[in-house]
Specification:
By secondary structure, this protein is α/β, with parallel strands linked by helices. The protein contains eleven helices and twelve strands. Helix content is 37%, strand content 22%. The protein binds L-homoserine (HSE).
């Protein structure tokens, strides 16, 4: 499997590390070869630890590289989804599948991307876009045949980390700086704080679960940017915890701060952990695990590569 990695920041580098580590023990990864890496600086051919631009990159270079899979670890552009969207479409035309940890293209153009992939008979793996390596998209893949009624979750690691640390006595700013240092926050952390990142993720899950094509622009969301430290302390004193909750039912998606009681499974999800409850007509399944961090996001992409090899995506 010839892999082109698009974006070589923390996630891209961790993906390379994971491929190298896991290739020895996972049969599906034995023939996975990184054939090129592309960043804003250009294209680097082959599999190298550090990035060295061999040439400027343009989409015609894809024909020369002939990837089987393009893995997009670049950061989100919520204006247009570019340059990722054009890269995906060219990759699809050339018969390559896409694995992405970049939320923007799918939060803006989910239906169009899926349709084009289908037309060309290729696949799109996007576990790394929601809850990083903790199965959310891929949890839905292993719940076949049931009708999803509701999705409810904590989908942003940065805000959950801040809410936890503030409840332990840290100031909002201290907690935010810790979340940045740990690599949880977006390049622009405003997107975490104002609920936008969680909204992008619940839109992706909503569209996948219900076969719809909502965009981030259709979502009502609010965040924690105006949260007062006292508010958190008061809630804790009453046995409640503030959590940024993302919710979806067919055709309706929202993100807002809620005060949860001990009866709610999401109450127990702290620090960088995320969680997702999927309610169907048969069961409610709740999953929790780390929701951010470069290695976690990279694992989301690695899992997709393995599942593609197994024919499960
Ligand atoms: N900034 C995101 C978060 C990264 O904190 O959840 C993972 O998508």
């Amino acid at each position: 499997m010839r892999v082109l990695i698009f974006g070589f920041g923390k996630v891209g580098k961790e993906l390379r590390n994971l491929i190298h580590e896991k290739r020895k023990e996972v049969p599906e990864l034995k023939d996975v070869e990184i054939v090129a890496t592309v960043t804003r600086k250009g294209i680097s051919y082959g599999d190298r630890e550090g990035f060295v631009a061999d040439e400027p990159f343009d989409l015609d270079k894809l024909e020369k590289v002939k990837p089987d899979v393009v893995v997009d670890t670049s950061s989100a552009n919520y204006e247009t989804g570019e340059p990722s969207v054009s890269l995906y479409y060219r990759a699809f035309e050339l018969g390559a599948s896409v694995v992405t940890t970049n939320k923007a293209p799918l939060a803006l153009k989910f239906g169009e991307i899926m349709e084009r992939a289908k037309k060309h008979g290729v696949k799109v793996g996007f576990q790394g876009t929601v809850m990083s390596g903790t199965p959310s998209v891929n949890l839905l893949r292993v719940l076949p045949g049931v009708r999803v009624r509701k999705l409810r979750g904590i989908l942003n690691g940065t805000t959950n980390y801040i809410l936890t640390r503030v409840s332990e006595g840290a100031t909002f700013l201290e907690a935010l700086n810790e979340a940045k240092a740990k690599g949880y926050a977006e390049e622009d952390p405003t997107l975490d704080l104002n609920g936008f990142d969680a909204a992008a993720k619940i839109v992706i899950l909503h569209n996948f679960a219900f076969g719809k094509n909502m965009t981030i622009r259709d979502v009502k969301f609010s965040g924690i940017q105006n949260l007062k430290e006292d508010e958190v302390k008061n809630a804790m004193a009453k046995g409640m915890k503030p959590k940024l909750v993302a919710y979806a039912e067919e055709g309706r998606v929202e993100v807002s701060l809620k005060y949860l009681t001990r009866e709610d499974p999401l109450y127990y999800v702290d620090e960088v952990e995320n969680a997702l409850s999927v309610e169907t007509e048969v069961q409610t399944v709740t999953i929790r695990g780390p929701g951010a961090g470069p290695r976690q996001a990279a694992y989301g992409a690695l899992a997709d590569l393995i599942l593609m090899k197994r024919g499960l995506i």
